[in-house]
Amino acid sequence: MALSTAAAGALCALAPVPNSVRPAAAALGPAGTLEASWTATDSFGDRSAQAGLIAFDESAYKAMASDRRRTPQFARAIQKRLEGKAGEWSVLDIGTGPYALLAIIAAKAGARKVYAVEAVPEAARRARLFVAKAEKNGDVRPGQIEVIDGLSTEVTLPEKVDLVIAEIIGSVASEEGAHATIRDAQLRHAKRPHDVSSWIPVAAQTLAAPCSYSLHSLLGPPEFDWAKLDGVPVRLNCRASEVQLLADPQLIEEVRFADPALPVTGRVANPRVRFAVDGARLAANAAVYAAEIRTDGSADLAALGASVASDLSGLALWPRLQLDDEGTIFVESRGPHGEAQKSHWTTVVALLSARPVALKPADQLTASLTVELGGAVTTPPRYLLRADLLPA
Ligand SMILES: C[S@@+](CC[C@H](N)C(=O)[O-])C[C@H]1O[C@@H](n2cnc3c(N)ncnc32)[C@H](O)[C@@H]1O
């Protein structure tokens, strides 16, 4: 994807005297600590913040359903898990959405009964229509799928189920309330809560890598004050070239669905991870930015692009889902090395300082993500991201 119009516009605006007007890079605090904190629903507008749940519009539901890296993998995992269990296993689909997508896949794969629970009344109403259509087409048996209105944490099912499907994974894996939803499902809905084969996915992970973000480098006070974002991360398409990774990605958060100690309240301190700034990545990033900029024909701007390429703006975060117990079916919103690719999930860029920090190859960065959980699925998690820079 080309540099966004806004980014290209920002570059062009700087064209006459680019290096002299470029906002200064940050001076680090005394201990070299960089941080960001935000609440899960912060970037999603009033409706989400009021309900406490991240809400989706029609285009978001469509993007999920047609995500070719996601939906077929779920179908594979569901079919694999129900193989040999046709007519026997009962299934709960938490957050079935307006198309009852995964519920219908499970029913077609032979589930004896599928309970499809949805918290948003309009989505549940439409899910019923899709189920009726699937019944009429003979794709599923009448009554095989039952759509239930409400939060999974508030409904009582007629029976405990053999398999829980829960695609409630955000761009930061836990941001859609996975801890509270899954812990409740372990206690009240699953027959074998601590058996990994009771869950799809079996784990939801957040990957992270330090990144440059061209707009952050190119725009600064007085025209634009990034501090006004107050820690709320920027969310970008996973293919956006405005964001380039400076190091290989690391696992910064993991929610294991069969975990008997899955927390629902308090602070979850995920293990600290270490990144080494990769000179080859910086050179490749400079080439990407320069290629975008050269279309403008300005050598000054190409040099500016090269310097943007080694700026640390923050940590890029994105999800990876492990769907099967053997660890062979994964859904990744970026490639295995963090490559940009098409996905309905966003790449979340948590800016770690008001101005970017210039890095060099072999500099190191350690980072940890602490998640504060409020107990209920409608209490959005709060995130605290801390990073320390260790210059080479
Ligand atoms: C990411 S969408 C997934 C929709 C659909 N399952 C799919 O895979 O395309 C998540 C859906 O779950 C619903 N949801 C989230 N947490 C829920 C919960 N604990 N109980 C019921 N619905 C929930 C949301 O309203 C939303 O419709």
From TrEMBL:
Keywords: S-adenosyl-L-methionine
Protein origin, superkingdom: Eukaryota
The keyword S-adenosyl-L-methionine is annotated on this UniProt entry: yes
GO cellular component: nucleus
This protein's record includes keyword Repeat: no
GO MF term set: histone methyltransferase activity; protein-arginine N-methyltransferase activity
PANTHER family to which the protein is assigned, alphabetical: PROTEIN ARGININE N-METHYLTRANSFERASE, PROTEIN ARGININE N-METHYLTRANSFERASE 3
Protein name: Protein arginine N-methyltransferase
Annotated organism of origin: Diacronema lutheri (Unicellular marine alga)
